[in-house]
Specification:
72% of the residues lie in helices and 0% in strands. It has 160 residues and is an all-alpha fold. The chain has one domain (7-159). Helix 3 (31-46) packs across helix 5. The chain is globular and about 50 Å long. The mean pLDDT is 94.
């Protein structure tokens, strides 16, 4: 498969469809941000369950994300194709663990996650450079999600 898949390839190949965040990673501008936007409805759905079920879903989605991102990258013959955004979905879902309900928190979590995903403070950048395959694609976004989760919880404490 080509290094730059067509819209048809992404939308018809199950691995690419999931890896590209249901097609959101096809965005020609800021695919990571658009992929994170695609995570919001998933968060809203998962947030209707208990915190334990939510956490279990994030773990499962992240494990599957490692496999899916790795397979998509392998098929594309590109380590971390910019259109692969399942890692952003995993990172945002982790960010929103324990978040209070409401759109203010959805947006605040989104902004915090994008900041940490883009800036990549230590050890995120280190992990991004060292780990390969699906694990390398997803782990740095999970780390960004942890940083954003902790930051979001600090904001929650500050406003309560």
């Amino acid at each position: 498969m080509a290094r730059h898949p067509t819209v048809k390839q992404v939308l018809t190949h199950p691995v690419h469809f999931l890896a590209f965040g249901f097609g959101s990673g096809l965005s020609p501008v800021a695919p990571g941000t658009v992929g994170t936007i695609a995570a919001v409805p998933i968060y809203l759905l998962l947030n209707t369950f208990s915190q334990f079920a939510y956490f279990a879903a994030v773990v499962l989605i992240s494990l599957l994300g490692v496999l899916i991102a790795g397979k998509s990258a392998q098929l594309l013959q590109v380590h971390d194709h910019g259109g692969i955004v399942i890692d952003e979905i995993c990172g945002y879902l982790l960010t929103m663990l324990l978040a209070p309900p409401g759109w203010w928190w959805v947006i605040t979590g989104f902004i915090l996650f994008r900041i940490f995903d883009i800036v990549k403070p230590w050890p995120i950048h280190y992990l991004d450079q060292r780990l390969k395959g699906g694990l390398g694609i997803v782990v740095d976004d999970l780390m960004a999600g942890i940083y954003a989760l902790l930051s979001l919880q600090l904001v929650v404490l500050a406003v309560q």
